[in-house]
Amino acid sequence: MENNKLIEIDMAVATDADEGLRLDKYILAFFPDVGLRQRRRIIENGLVTVNERKAKPGLKLFTGARVVVFEQDGCECADEVSAGLKILKQTDDYAVVYKPEGLHSAKIAGGIEPSAEGCFPKLFSGREPVLINRLDQLTSGMLLVAFGHDQVNIFKDIEEKGQVDKFYLAKVHGVPESEFIIKNRLDTDDRAMTKVLEEDAEHLRWSRVKLIEKLDGDMSLVEVEISKGARHQIRVHLAHAGFPIAGDPVYGKVDDAQDRMYLHHNRITFPGFEAECDSGWK
Fold this sequence. Notes:
Blueprint: E1 6-13, H1 23-26, H2 36-44, E2 48-50, E3 53-54, E4 66-72, H3 79-82, E5 86-90, E6 94-99, H4 120-123, E7 129-131, E8 140-147, H5 149-160, E9 165-173, E10 179-182, E11 184-187, E12 195-200, E13 207-215, E14 219-226, H6 233-240, E15 263-270, E16 273-276
Parallel strand pairs: 8-15
Antiparallel strand pairs: 1-4, 2-3, 2-4, 5-6, 6-8, 7-8, 9-14, 9-15, 10-13, 11-12, 13-14, 15-16
């Protein structure tokens, strides 16, 4: 079924148990890894219909309602999106792609917003590119790509052994000591905001912070090293330690007048591979 260049990808019929449930909550079954805000955007973009009509996120479902989910036909990579991406390094097994701030790393099921991953077929024609790491939309820097799922599994095994080091640069408010480690475990159940817990995480989830330079206005440039990242790990760890990232709209200072969020993934190393990417604002 096609509908204005949209293709039907899933369908369900509401049962008695779904009576009165909001549409934006009902479609969680279609998008288990997508937060409430994005699910609402998917509905508002016309990618969900109820009984062949567009609906609002707050629509209360009723028994027998036919809910259909669509995606865009083709999911093309616009020239203006691919122009902002750059292949920094490429081997037989892996590649690193620069992603600017403001662009999604991964394709979002049912979404229509552009992503770096959506351009991989264009960047790596004839190969099987698989996105390994994700960056927040507001974070710039390096995306690691594997060529084939075998290479993904090899990387994951190396990562579990603690042999992967990922380095980020961040402009933060305040001036920390020269070096310190943030060990707190994180609660990522709420997709909108990660919470810091009192107990320590396993060592692969620690954030190691090093002062690089003191900046004007009681700010500083720091390097943060992680092995395995959790969602918003660096952002929430730094804020918890009293050094929120400049321009962070979720964990940062209130009324922080910045032109962007200053977090950049600038280096990665693991056995047989290393890549680096300048921030442009250091």
